[in-house]
Amino acid sequence: MSYPKAEMAAGAVPPGPAPVVAQPGAGMQQINLQMMAAAPTQWAAAGQAPPGCPKGLEYLASVDQLLVKQKVEAIEAITGFETNNKYEIVNSLGQRVYQAVEDTCCCTRNCCGSTRPFDIKIMDNRNTEVIHLSRGLRCSSCWCPCCLQRVTVEAPPGQVVGYVSQAWSLCKPRFKIENAEGETVLRIKGPCCQWEMCGDIEFDVHTEDETTFVGRVTKQWTGLGKELFTDADNFGISFPVDLDIKMKAVMIGAVFLLDFMFYENNKKKNQNDAKKVMG
Question: Are 155 and 132 in contact (CB under 8 A)?
Fold first, then answer.
């Protein structure tokens, strides 16, 4: 099933009462995600909080697509010294919804690299932490199925709303979006190759039984210079507009896990791959 990579929900109408099965993006206006990568000019206004919505997640109530942009750190780009990652999360209008910052020590970042355990604070326009992501130090090898990657998502901090868990797979990466009880709600299926010259990489989101496509996480191509000399990446996320708001927060957590597993500290790899492609 094809899915437009540049499709965004600007003023979309919720597709129906069924949560998860609804298809996002049907008949919606198409907007180029690369245009969204421009610096946002303002913060998005908080919408009406649905019943049971954790404080700070009301921004997610009416959206079905977001863009996560990692900021380029000049010191890291020049020296290669790993710094705390910083991100902006914007909506289809280019308005900032959240900002995120990694909170790890210097030794952990530069000794453990992309496999490092991390804590990421996601904050609203009042600089209040509304989502907390944490990952322990684990192995991501397919030969260690008993100790795969897992991100815990708390909203607000201290209250677990779900998990992003790596599922065992030999070739193609697989992940589970789980609720606070550890029950699988959605599944993410990635491609065999997680890098492509001048192209986007797509991780499809399906229902728990994998029978229905409901969204996508897209690692976007950001240009040759940025791809070769930095590890600052852009990710687009799409999900059903009426998906449980807590699971939307967990989907955001999935983006950060994918970024660290496949695209953090990848400058040397990208340069070598580019040389092969260019002959």
Answer: yes
Q: What is the CA radius of gyration of the chain?
A: 18
pTM over 0.85: no
Cβ atoms of 190 and 173 within 8 Å: the answer is: yes
Alpha-carbon distance 30 to 240, whole Å? Answer: 16
Q: Which residue has the higher pLDDT, 70 or 270?
A: 70
C-alpha 84/C-alpha 118 separation (Å) is 10
29, amino acid identity: Q
Structure tokens at 18: 């069924």
Q: Are 257 and 175 in contact (CB under 8 A)?
A: yes
Stronger pLDDT, 109 or 68, i.e. the higher one: 68
pLDDT in tens, 31-72: 444 444 444 458 988 878 888 899 999 999 989 999 999 887
Residues near 75 by Cβ (< 8 Å), separated by ≥ 6? 81, 83
Count of Cβ atoms closer than 10 Å to residue 22 Cβ: 19
**Is residue 221 exposed (0-12), middle (13-18) or buried (19+ Cβ within 10 Å)?**
middle
Which one has a higher pLDDT value, 74 or 133?
Answer: 133
Structure tokens given for 37: 């990568």
> If pLDDT is split at 50, 70 and 90, which confidence band does 221 have?
confident
Q: Do the Cβ atoms of 119 and 131 come closer than 8 Å?
A: no
